[in-house]
Amino acid sequence: MPALNFLPELQDVYEPLYPEQLQALHQQVVQEGGELASIQSRFNYAWGLIKSADVNDQRLGIKLLTDIYKEEPTRRRECLYYLTIGCYKSGEYSMAKRYVDKLHEHEPNNKQVQTLKKMVEDKIQKETVKGVVVATGVIAAVATIAGFMFRKKK
Amino acid sequence: MSSHDQLTHLGKSLSLTASTLLNPSQADDHSLTSNPQYKSILHEAVNKNEGGAGTLIRKMKDLNLPFQDKEQDKSGFQDLSLAKDGKSYFNNRYTDLRTSFKIMTHLNDEILNDIPSDVSKSTDNGRKTIKAAAENATDQGPSLFQGFEASIPIIDQLLTYDANDDDDDSGPLMLNTTEAEEKFLLPNGFTQELIGRSYSVNVLRDLSKQVTTQLDFLEVQKRLAENEINELDLKIAKLKIKRDNVFSKIATVEENEFFLQDSLGLVQDRLDFLVEYGLEASDDKTDEESTILGAGRKGAGSVSTGLGNEVSSTHPSKDGSKYLSADSNGDIADKLGQFYHNQNRNSRKITPTLQQYFEKGSMINTIQKAHDDNITCLDFDLPFGTLCTAGHLDHVIKIWDLSRSKQIGRMTGHVATVNCMQITNNMLVSGGKDALLKLWNLNVGVQSFRNVLPTNNSNLEPISSSASCIHTFDSHVDEITSVTVAGENLISGSQDRTIRQWDIPSGKCLQTIDLSFVAIASPPIQVTDSPFLTTTKATAIIGALQCFDAALATGTRDGIVRLWDLRAGKVVRALEGHSGSITCLKFDNKNIVTGSIDKTVRIWDLRSGILSDMLTFEKPVLSVDFDKNKIAIATHDEACKVYDRQLNNLQTCTSTDEASTSDPTIPVSTVETMSYQNGYLVEGRSDGTINSWAV
Asked: Which segments does the entry list as coiled coil (chain B) (predicted)?
């Protein structure tokens, strides 16, 4: 199938749907009976949610994906991919890393998985640097306060 | 985001930092489980592989952590339809959004590691890459993402339809149907004619590209639909299993109902017995109550033995007086009246419904070799209730439990073949070739059988089983061919050309109606009867009777159905039409249905006396029974027929596999008699088999 990628690119997830579209997807899930809805319509809604800009919507989308993951063993590989993207987008880099690592184990030769893995790792590195900076700052602050208080006590 | 959230975020990134520095692979687990606040919930809920989310949500509900709407908490996912966005979904009072999100979306290692490799194509170490799957799309089908991409255009389409439709009030569905022919369009407003006229290579190339894309879309959509069908099939299978479970639940509940009703009957009988004979114990209150409460089973046992005692103690007097004139004996009349009133008193009835959930026209149960020869008559009280049968040349009436298809009683007393019987409550009336009409107590018949069977004492058996005969109405001088009970009235028709009306409470014959004029019409019909002289019903003068209050309907050998007023003892109306002797009839408040040797079933309007419908068959009709919807018909054939009055179609009660297996080995047995009630049909066959069907 040349016209349609088998899996989405990471950029794809940054193009939000119109609210009406999302509403329609939601409506379909509800109509089909919530939990009883077919995997596809639930995924559609979940993916629509992940595409949204609101972090809480993204989380709900991830939740739905997790449900699909649990329910449908044959879809697990795919789901890992979507989950990684979803977690990446919503800022849960550790979760994203966990998923993408697992996916990479099973799909070592997949280009898309490799790129995704790389992006997640890069991001984590950046975050780590950020984290270290924050951490040192905090430690410094704490140390200063502590020192200050100690001195005061004395 | 709240400040708390930010704090958690800070803590999170701290721990993340630390763990990635120290041990990158365990970053996640550590950070997740390091928060003791929800550790226990997490462990309990997430460790369950299947339905983890559901359990979790339930858990949260238990902990009083609902998602906004408490009143509408139906199932876990219903919350999703209520939650307009992710915020309200994850919102709860105990943890912040992010934490609850994390709990709910956590996948534990076990489930994460459990990724099935495609077994179908185990080429490279049983591992199949997504890409390989993509190439082999026929196996795998499109990915979920492709499905998503393919369904977005459809949704867009719908949305535009919706937008257009806002002005004129026709729904999108209407629009779809009206524009069905114009629905298939080429992109950019191209038509097939335009293609033929176009000379621009670029435009055509463009078009072909677009069409290919669209084709791909369609292909994906098709696959999606196929997948959906497969999913639905799976769901249907699952639902079927569910249905079976619920079905068996109904079955057990109904069995329990029967059991309790039985027990209630026993208690009632025991009570009556105690009161009647003044055997009430003085320390009743303390002793009796404690035994009942403490050992119900023991109590029940003593009840049954007590009844056995009653039976044997009352037996001699009854036995002795049986050979006296029954009418003159006041004691008997008392007993009879008492019995009759008892029967009418405990009339609390359960209505079994299980047969409705069987597949229509399927066999529910079968009793092989219920009698040695053909079944002459049978009747049952309720679906899955008690069945009484009698066989040709077999003088015993057997009692069966239809739900277990097991014999639970036998009653002896007749000295020839039993021709006809009817059950009301726990009372059975039977009439036989011995010109005797007997009234039986089924409870006693069952209990004595129960008592006798374990000891296997053949000496006791005939005595105790004949004790179940409450009364013998002995006035007819020839075999009894039909019998009916309605209230206190018992009507019997005999070959001696009389119909007698009996009063059950007193045991007296109230009226004798002479039907000698019927014989005059019989000779010409005898010719058509001749091939079926073997069956008793074919030559019966009074083929069928039914009584309601003072109204009596008779079907006789001359083919005329007569409606009588019992108070005057006169014919009110005669329905003429049948050309052969009538074998069976039944009426309700609207119709009277009659079956005859002339191979027809006629349905008459009771008020006007006009024939409203007629069914013709290939064989003489032997038995007919009906309710509002269906008429069950037994002809001299291998299967019962059920005529649906609403749908106007005829259904046959044959199970295909059964017929094919039994056909070659033994000659086909035919249905001799049949009884139908509330979608439950019992047939008695010429080889002594009894089958029950759901219709």
From this structure: 208-242
